[in-house]
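Reminder: ligand-aware prediction takes two inputs, not one.
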Amino acid sequence: MQTPDPRTRAGSRRDIAVLTSALTLEEKAALSVGIDNWRTASFARLGIPSVKTTDGPNGARGDIRDHVSITPSVCIPSASSLGATWDPQVVEQASAIVARQAREKGCRVLLAPTVNLHRHPLWGRNFECFSEDPVLTGKLAVAYIRGVQENDVVATIKHFVCNEVEHERNTCSSDVDERALRELYLLPFEYGVRVAGVLAVMTSYNRVNGNFVPDDARLLDDVLRKEWGFAGFVMTDWSGIATTLEAAKAGLDLEMPGPARAYGPALVDAVRSGQLDESHLDQMAHRMLTVFDQVGALDDPPTDEHPEDREEDRAFVRHAAADGMVLLANDGLLPLSASGLGRVAVVGPNADRLAIMGGGSAGVTPHYVLSPLGALRERLDSATEITYATGVAGDGVADAVSIQAAVDAVQGADAVVLMVGTDDVWESEGYDRESMELPRNQDELVRRVLAAHPRSVVVVNSGAPVSLGWADNAAAILQTWFGGQELANAIVDVLVGDSEPGGRLPTTLPMCIEHTPAFGSFPGESSRVRYSESLLIGYRWYETRRLPVRFAFGHGLSYTNFEIGIPRPSVAKLEPGGSLSVAVPVTNVGGRRGAEVVQLYVAAPGAGQSLTGGRFRPLKELRAFAKVWLDPGETTTVTLALNERSFAYYDIADTDWPALCARLPGSVYNHGHAPSPLHRSASGWYVDAGTYRLCIGRSSADIAHVVDVEVTGSGSPLASSLLPQ
Ligand code: BGC
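Here is what comes back for the chain with beta-D-glucopyranose:
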């Protein structure tokens, strides 16, 4: 199977086979490793220029000095904010801005998107990933990759795979069972490769089931290349390689950065000593040059950085940030009026040191930043008096005094906006958070302010879930995530109703850390992280285990109201090889324009039960969604597409079964009960026959309609050509 060509460019411009064969052994080895932090080698005699890579997901970082980008970049919302948009179009437009900026920085390879999953709320890089759900992540990754590659920049999907902890990330092993690996953690990568035709993959630092990924021929060759048809190149995470032979044989193409640790000269030695066939180097060079040629990088040497700050990018990023904001609670307090408000008390550290992005390699230097306090001052009418109290001190020691000053400030105020959260130090690559509580006594600040002024708006500026233990006492809570350089303006837009809070939770907000699926197996011990919850990530866990949550996956309020009408499936029975679409009418029954996200979850027969001889299925799983914007009174019909993969599970096969039966022939120990027929000899995606429930609603916990469909199931593995829908 061929990876779809994501680009419209007609064919390749250079004969890559000829070019590869013209490279000497030393040149091929030199191409296999960066010449510095970001660039690949150039070969003037063959007209092969250097190709420059850049981080990262929320902006094109370009060259860095002291970990900070030297030239500014448009900072788009971080991935958990983009995930909350549930809108592939927004994601595609946002990544297109990053790709254009990458070009302005002379780069042709973007080190994004990050598609690992929100397995645990304390993982330091949750902000950099879209969701806890692999289908939402996969579909948004497809959009992100398209936005990048349509602009002739290589997208690099990362980190392949199971990179869901920072603690000891370079050594730990993510120990995950094969079914969870396929159904959850590999799925976003499968979307990226098979649906979007991503051109590069970055391996993760961690091991998977004991094997370092750059050395893992099963993952890199069997799954990625042979099963999925990946035709691009595979690079390491930065310095994430230790072996020469294993990695080259597994199919790892590029070591980054340079100078070499394992590739380069060591590959020459390996070939000369007869340990490695030179054909491996031919393939590596061929794959890299093919991709470089596909995006036109062979005709475009890196230039100096000249990023532009465009009005239209600012406007788009501002809308995108609002589209991802989730209005968690609102008893009618929001939106505030922009005029005649009287005295507004603004409280909280994040009002004047806004967190627009997380820390680590995703960090960029934005063209400019504005604080929400500044944005409020600009937007509210001049008759409004705005006071500000930070509420917590920097070191957490003088907090009682600070908190009291904030409580005094909100007494008698006409409106209170309380802005709390984390920042790029509390949420960062390289380490995990230690607690879900807000840092620096901010939970205490919120409790005290809510007690003094119950009708305060609480704005939560974090990239990942925080505990929200005071949520029941808050009249309005707005989750803003790390919304990029325009976040301050977007917050004010939503507060005063200029913009709809368009987001829905891409990740469950739990009651407490002890309820979370990976509690007890995060961040791991003795270099092992056991994915002990297996299939039950996120809402799959809370629902199947019947645990209460603070706010459910998919939840988010609008400033208007919607009615979801009766869904109509295109067929009542899904036959083998068939597909199914569900038409769902949606009406805006409120008084202003707004956005609704229609979500479709599939519940398999017997879901959530331990079935003797059957397959365990989570209670229900997201399989399709659509976001619509409607004027008051307007109705539209969304179409949600499903295919057999939407009903399938991955069967790991039981090849030991015949030998197990032969060991005790005629055994009576089963007391006459027939063994399960599901001891299959071939692994793959299977669909069991039965009645499946399609649960359609506005969150995993708010289901408006349930429709039954019969699924026939052929008993055979699904065709390998069937893409995840
Ligand atoms: C990160 C990658 C990043 C790379 C280059 C690594 O530490 O894990 O995501 O692309 O650095 O900055």
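Residues 55-56, 111, 158, 237-238, 361 surround beta-D-glucopyranose (CB under 6 Å). The longest helix spans residues 88-104. We will return to this case in the review session.
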